[in-house]
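[Meeting: bench + compute handoff]

Bench side (C.D.) handed over the final construct sequence. Compute side (W.E.) agreed to return the predicted structure before the next meeting so the bench team could plan truncations. Sequence as handed over:
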Amino acid sequence: MRCSQRGIHFEALHLRHEKESESAHRQTRPSGIGLASAVAVLFAFYINYHSALIYAGLGGSATAAVWNFIVRQKVASCCRPVELQSAITCSHCAHQRTEVMPTDACVYFYECESCHTTLRPKSGDCCVFCSYGWVKCPPTQLGVSCCTT
């Protein structure tokens, strides 16, 4: 699969829209649980005192808060902007150079302009940006399978 700039852009927008609509749907459930818990606590405390109902309501409020936190973290992690510049550091001479990462191909070889060493991806990495760059390549940033041919 080759990654095109427009493909990554549109895929990122689609994933962002899908996650936002999914999160909006999911955030009504924690709100509903929180509201029901608040009503249970108020009822148990002011109308008919029952300590078990108060603790159940407080537990429901805590559950709703944790659920809402998890949903927000998932949405925030998928909606980060994609960085297209990364500084590559040569493993031989420690020379650094900022490069623009391509979105339509992987960079398997990179020649250091200082010592002319050819850098190759480390084992388990898809490209030299993932191995020697400060920022991972765009497909990896999006969580997409990176540029396999």
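W.E. noted at the follow-up: The beta strands are 85-89, 96-100, 110-111, 118-119. C.D. will use this when planning the next construct.
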